[in-house]
Design a protein that fits this description.
heterodimer; A: mainly alpha; Ammonium transporter fold; 0% strand; B: alpha/beta; OB fold (Dihydrolipoamide Acetyltransferase, E2P); Ubiquitin-like (UB roll); 4 domains; 6-stranded mixed β-sheet; 29% helix; 20% strand; globular
Chain lengths: 311, 440
């Protein structure tokens, strides 16, 4: 029989995992919090999400076409970035805001540095920082959940600015019945999504556990040893979204386990310091961005010991 | 004793179902064999026979005076047709081509060697050397060399590798089930030759029947322990197996003897046991013929020098066009582009992949997911090493321990971006070692 045999270097079998499966899992994990955000903040939130994702995917495709590269939008990575950009803005934002954010995230933060796997910071967070600096009013126009969209500060805003407003109950912040960005309010759904990612082995427990744990300890220590408030602090603002979905971004966090722990503790320390002493009420996004920049350095100093090497 | 293991590793599909229940059967007597004069790591043998000579089964037909070398023997009785260079897995090798007379007349030298008690260390070593025994797990390193450590490296433990952690392969599994006493006798001989009083036989727990049978076979010997190993690849890798059994790490850049251990495959031990019992040198081995393209998967006892296409034919030929043929397991085996090559002492498997098994996935950018770092049993960082390798940054690769890579392929297996991690690392390692040799 005339046969053509392939010859290649071992191994000759590969796992079923693919980049698109991983990214699709991230999208699946974000869906409950996304849908909940649309449910409490209304249809404008839905339009923002759709516009953001569409802009991210279109930007990625256009740039890859321009660079005459293979278009890889079907790997879902641009979908994840677009979705995260939308989840990080208030529901009242004008539609162009997430579009500009997504274009910036994909074109500048991701593609300029070499595309998938080469971004030195989380693209969605880079975009959020840019939007915050450029359109601070639109980026902080918070409303109460519900159809009437009454302007209302977020729990972090109440604490941070010492406003004389009743703080929502712990149950409300857990479920997400509070003001905030579209995707950050429901701690419980974000945790569920994070657990799904751990179950699917997309992320390890290390970054979320050490990040959240550090915030808990630091807040307890720096905030008058009030355990209730320290715990309450975990479920408000963007901590869950950040710890499970943004700090765990592969390309912008250290690759080795020890480095991930150092990175996560650094995120926790910075986030708490910014929250308590900083000018902004929220410190999650800047803590991650700062640690993203430090990640290569952390990697250098947390090299694993080789098998049979000195202990 | 609980299940032993090492840190890292992967869980590829076992794919052993189609052959694990099949008893070893003797392959059809080949009409012609082409026995390569190099079936081991080390210097090739020189032919001891020439065209027209009559040879018998077990007769030594190739040897050299070099220490790192194993002699080869005729696997059939008959007439030497020619001694000529023929295509082999490694490219081409000098082969002794023998026409089989089908009589299987044993050579006069094939005589039982007596029992282990009556043999001295030196006698055992010379029996092993004379029988051409090499590491049958795949590497083909001459066993007598392994059993001759320098005096400054004391050995206190011998470990037999019965993990068979490579997917698809069931040859060692069947061997343990069907000739456990040869394995145990071989281990005893190896232990005696090294003066060691602690022996382990490590078997993955996906082979409970082998663990049971081997435990029974070794029961009479208090210094031999059969240990269950966690089923995980590369459980059978030398350094990982030593760690699982003794919690000792072979030092970086070192050899098993630096951890006081010698590791042999169970098939190697069985060959040692057999030559002592019957005097028959290593002229045949168990081989698993399987994969999606083969009609009737089998475990066959194959005489060295049998052409692969004859073996495939005995397994009903191909039911669909093969996409890839691998000698050995799918994780570390070598792909061949032709079947008109002879089997050797190290042909543990012939995997005939169909098109869907053979198809290689398209590679994408590294997403730095860290899966390769997490599973690497050598604790190196494959993603980084591969990036250095692809940019020819060999100094950086070396500084980051590229030479500690054991080439198990786990990184390439888990990579979701399907990057050729091991392939690139392997190229860099060869390059670095070549530069080192040049520098000397």
């Amino acid at each position: 029989m005339e046969t053509k045999l392939r010859v290649s270097s071992s191994p000759h079998i590969r796992s079923k995992d693919t980049v698109s499966n991983i990214m699709r899992d991230v999208v699946i994990a974000l869906l409950p919090a996304t849908l909940y955000g649309i449910y409490i903040f209304g249809m404008n939130a839905a339009f923002l999400v759709i516009a953001s994702v569409a802009a991210a995917v279109a930007t990625e495709a256009a740039i890859q076409k321009m660079k005459k590269q293979k278009v890889t939008v079907n790997d879902y990575s641009a979908v994840v970035t677009g979705l995260l950009v939308a989840l990080n803005i208030p529901s009242t934002a004008p539609i162009w805001l997430p579009i500009i954010g997504s274009i910036f995230a994909i074109a500048i933060v991701k593609q300029v540095f070499g595309g998938l796997g080469h971004n030195f910071m989380n693209p969605a967070l880079g975009a959020r920082a840019m939007l915050m600096a450029s359109w601070p009013v639109e980026m902080t126009n918070w409303v109460k959940p519900g159809a009437d969209a009454i302007s209302h500060p977020t729990p972090l805003g109440i604490i941070g600015e010492g406003l004389n407003v009743q703080l929502p109950s712990l149950a409300d912040v857990l479920i997400g019945n509070v003001g905030g960005c579209i995707g950050e309010t429901s701690a419980i759904l974000l945790i569920a999504g994070g657990l799904y990612l751990m179950y699917r082995k997309v992320i390890s427990y290390r970054i979320p556990a050490f990040y959240i744990g550090t915030v808990l300890v630091m807040t307890f220590l720096l905030n008058g040893f009030d355990l209730y408030m320290a715990v309450y602090n975990l479920f408000i603002g963007g901590l869950m979204l950040g710890a499970f979905f943004m700090a765990t971004d592969y390309a912008s966090s250290p690759i080795n386990p020890k480095g991930q722990i150092v990175f996560a503790i650094g995120c926790g320390v910075l986030a708490t310091i910014i929250r308590i002493y900083g000018g902004y009420p929220e410190g999650v996004s800047y803590s991650i961005l700062l640690m993203n920049v430090a990640a290569p350095l952390i990697e250098r100093y947390t090299q694993p010991r080789v098998f049979g090497g000195a202990k | 004793m609980g299940l032993l293991s090492f840190r890292g590793g992967i869980h590829p599909p076992h794919a052993k179902k189609s052959t694990e229940e099949l008893a070893i059967i003797k392959a059809v007597e080949p009409s012609v064999v082409a026995i390569p004069l190099r079936q081991h790591i080390g210097a090739p043998c020189e032919a001891l026979v020439q065209k027209g000579d009559t040879v018998k089964v077990g007769q030594k037909i190739g040897e050299t005076t070099s220490f790192v070398c194993a002699p080869v023997h005729s696997s059939v009785s008959g007439t030497v047709k020619e001694v000529v260079s023929k295509p082999t897995l490694g490219g081409a090798d000098l082969c002794v081509v023998i026409e089989n007379d089908g009589l299987n007349t044993p050579h006069e030298s094939v005589k039982p060697k007596g029992d282990i008690e009556s043999l001295s260390k030196e006698e055992i070593l010379s029996i092993i050397k004379d029988a051409g025994i090499v590491g049958m797990g795949g590497a083909g390193f001459p066993t007598h060399v392994k059993l001759s450590p320098p005096p400054e490296k004391p050995i206190d433990v011998v470990i037999l590798n019965g993990a068979e952690c490579e997917p698809y392969l069931t040859a060692d599994h069947r061997l343990m089930l069907e000739t456990p006493e040869d394995v145990v006798e071989g281990l005893r001989a190896i232990m005696k030759s090294l003066g060691v009083t602690r022996g382990y036989i490590g078997i993955e727990d996906n082979k409970p029947n082998a663990i049971k049978i081997m435990t029974e076979a070794a029961r009479a010997y208090g210094d031999i322990e059969v240990v269950g190993l966690h089923t995980k690849y590369p459980q059978g890798a030398e350094k990982q197996l030593i760690y699982a059994c003794t919690q000792r790490e072979v030092p970086s850049g070192g050899l098993p003897m630096d951890a006081g251990a010698v590791v042999n495959n169970v098939a190697t031990a069985a060959a040692v046991g057999k030559v002592i019992k019957t005097g028959m040198p290593l002229i045949e081995r168990v081989c698993t013929i399987t994969g999606g393209a083969i009609a009737e998967p089998k475990n066959l006892m194959i005489k060295t020098g049998t052409y692969l296409n004859e073996i495939v034919e005995q397994c009903g030929g191909f039911k669909v066009a093969p996409g890839k043929i691998i000698l050995g397991g799918p994780m570390m085996g070598l792909a061949t582009d032709r079947l008109d090559i002879p089997s050797t002492k190290t042909t543990s498997g012939i995997l005939c992949f169909d098109e869907s098994e053979a198809k290689l996935p398209e590679e994408a950018n590294c997403i730095k997911c860290g899966k390769c770092v997490e599973i690497c049993p050598a604790f190196v960082q494959p993603a980084m090493l591969s990036a250095y390798a692809l940019k020819d940054m060999y100094e950086q690769a070396e500084a980051n321990h590229i030479l500690d890579c054991i080439e198990c392929g786990s990184c390439s297996f888990v990579c979701p971006a399907k990057r050729p991690l091991l392939h690139s690392i392997r190229v860099a390692k060869r390059e670095i070692l070549a530069q080192r040799r040049k520098g000397k």
